[in-house]
Structures are given as structure tokens and as C-alpha cells.
Design goal:
- The protein has 295 residues and is mainly alpha-helical.
- The protein has a single domain, classed as ABC transporter involved in vitamin B12 uptake, BtuC, CATH 1.10.3470.
- The chain is built from eleven helices and four strands; from the N terminus they run ββααααββααααααα.
- The protein has a two-stranded antiparallel sheet.
Length: 295
């Protein structure tokens, strides 16, 4: 049996795959956070709750209405985006001129309300969500067995990250979004509805969280606490990559996911803390993050 540094290659590659899957979740979730913070200057602590909401919408669509995974992969993010727009229009827009702490506290309260609501109805135990039939099974690579669904999660997450980065950084729409953030009054002088841009940006950011929730539903147990288990790590990813940096969120999310998987092989005791160890080191050496702009 082939071994790498004393670890069988099957176990090592399995953990790397698991790290890539988790890193894909980290990348897309932190990407949504980075878009919201970079363009709206809001720290959205409710991002994990919207991730949970996307998974629950998919579960309810299947069990109550018989709606397939593929349909909910499109419908669930739209529903989550609408919920985000309601939150932004009803509450968050009143806090844009205040300190970041107010938005953080408000979204933290929203998390408690959403989790409490779903916990009162479905309890704390996880609800299973089946892998769609088209993505069941796996591929035998000789040195490991590659589940098709996990490969699908990595590929579609990378495609989404690349698409969002290209949209924000390389298109006229992205330039308009950045201009509306840096100088909204000047952009409004050209007849552009800046509040509408802000609302849609927030809706799209949380819709990405809902999309990842649907992807995660067949892998994780759908439960009210599933978002809380990820959001702390995702915030660490955003801080390491640089607050508001889209490229930093993508690269850091994937890299830390793989590093976390490798740590589970070579140093299992540190697997749950390695991300935060790196965050401390980065904050000491480069407070703006690896890809953030220094003040």
C-alpha cells in the first residue's frame, strides 16, 4: 500500500477531498460575505442562518411538495434572496450610516430568531436529504473512490466563485457596483437608483448562501444549527483573506478547507483550531488580511 509520510494514500486523498468540499462551502459563503461587506459595508452575521434557510427550503420542497433537488437548486436561492431583500429593506437600510457594530448586532438577533423558529418546529436533530439519483455512486480512481456528488459540489462551487469574481471585477456592472459603494451621491447624479443596487446586492449575497445550503443538504444533516457550525469558520476565512476581498475569500476558503483536511490526518487534535491559529498569525503580521488593502 502506497504511503505518504506514513499515511496511506487512500486516507490522505479522502481527507483532501473532504477538505475541498468544506473549502468549497467556505469559499462561496465567504464570497457572499465579502460581496455584502465590500459593497454595502455591512457585517452580515445572519449569513449562516440564510445558509440553513436554503437547506430547509430544499428539504421542505422535497418532502411537502415533491419538488426535486434540481428545481430547488434554483428556487431555494431565489426564496432566500427575497428573504434577504426583506431584511435589508425593512431593517438594515436604517443602519448604514451607523457603526458596523449595529448591523452586526441586528443580524445576530435575526440569527437567534430564525434558528429558534426552526428549532421549535423541527427540533434539533438533523433531517436527511437524499443525494439526487443522477449524482449517486462514485468513480474508482484506483487509489481512491471519488463520490460523484462531492465532485459535483466542488465543480459547481468553483464555477460560481469564478462567475461572481468575473462579474464584479471585469464587467461594467461590477464597476457600477463599486462606484455606487465608494461615491453613491455621484452615481445617483447620473440617474442610477443606488438604493435598488444596494438591495439587489444584499439579496444576491444571501442567495449564494442559500445556494450552498442546497448543495450541503445531501452531505450534512439539515438542522437549525447547521449554519452556526460554519459561520464562525467562514468569518475567520474572510478575515484571513481580507474583509471585502472577493479573490481573497475564494483562495483562502479553498486553501483553508484543504489545510483543515490535511490537519485531520497529521494532527487531528488541531483540526478544529488550525483556521483560527492562522487567523491570529495573519492578523499579527498583516492586519488587513492576505489580499486586503492596507489602510
Amino acid at each position: 500500500m502506497i504511503q505518504i509520510f506514513g499515511i496511506p494514500i487512500q486516507a490522505l486523498m479522502g481527507q483532501i477531498l473532504l477538505g475541498l468540499v468544506n473549502g468549497s462551502f467556505y469559499a462561496v459563503l465567504s464570497l457572499g460575505l465579502a460581496v455584502i461587506f465590500g459593497l454595502l459595508n455591512v457585517i452580515n452575521f445572519a449569513h449562516g442562518a440564510f445558509f440553513m434557510l436554503g437547506a430547509f427550503f430544499a428539504w421542505m420542497g422535497l418532502h411537502y411538495l415533491g419538488v426535486s433537488y434540481w428545481v430547488m437548486l434554483l428556487v431555494s436561492p431565489l426564496l432566500v434572496g427575497v428573504a434577504g431583500i426583506i431584511l435589508e429593506r425593512g431593517l438594515l437600510r436604517h443602519l448604514y450610516q451607523l457603526d458596523h457594530l449595529y448591523g452586526l448586532l441586528l443580524t445576530f438577533g435575526v440569527v437567534l430568531l430564525m434558528e429558534g423558529f426552526f428549532r421549535s418546529i423541527y427540533g434539533v436533530s438533523g433531517l436527511p436529504y437524499p443525494v439526487p439519483s443522477a449524482l449517486q455512486g462514485g468513480i474508482d480512481l484506483g487509489f481512491m473512490y471519488l463520490p460523484i456528488y462531492r465532485l459535483w459540489v466542488v465543480v459547481v462551487s468553483l464555477a460560481l466563485c469564478l462567475g461572481v469574481w468575473l462579474l464584479v471585477e471585469k464587467t461594467q456592472l461590477g464597476a457600477l457596483l463599486r462606484a455606487a459603494t465608494s461615491n453613491p451621491k455621484l452615481v445617483e447624479a447620473f440617474g442610477i437608483n443606488v438604493p435598488l443596487i444596494v438591495t439587489l446586492t444584499f439579496g444576491c449575497g444571501v442567495a449564494m448562501a442559500g445556494f450552498v445550503g442546497v448543495l450541503a443538504a445531501p452531505i450534512m444533516q439539515v438542522s437549525p444549527s447547521m449554519g452556526a457550525n460554519l459561520i464562525v469558520v467562514v468569518f475567520a476565512v474572510v478575515v484571513i483573506g481580507g474583509m471585502g476581498s472577493i479573490l481573497g475569500s475564494i483562495v483562502t476558503g479553498l486553501g483553508l478547507g484543504v489545510l483543515e483536511g490535511l490537519t485531520k490526518v497529521y494532527w487531528p487534535e488541531a483540526a478544529n483550531t488550525v483556521v483560527f491559529m492562522i487567523m491570529v498569525i495573519v492578523l499579527v503580521l498583516r492586519p488587513a488580511g492576505l489580499f486586503g488593502k492596507q489602510a
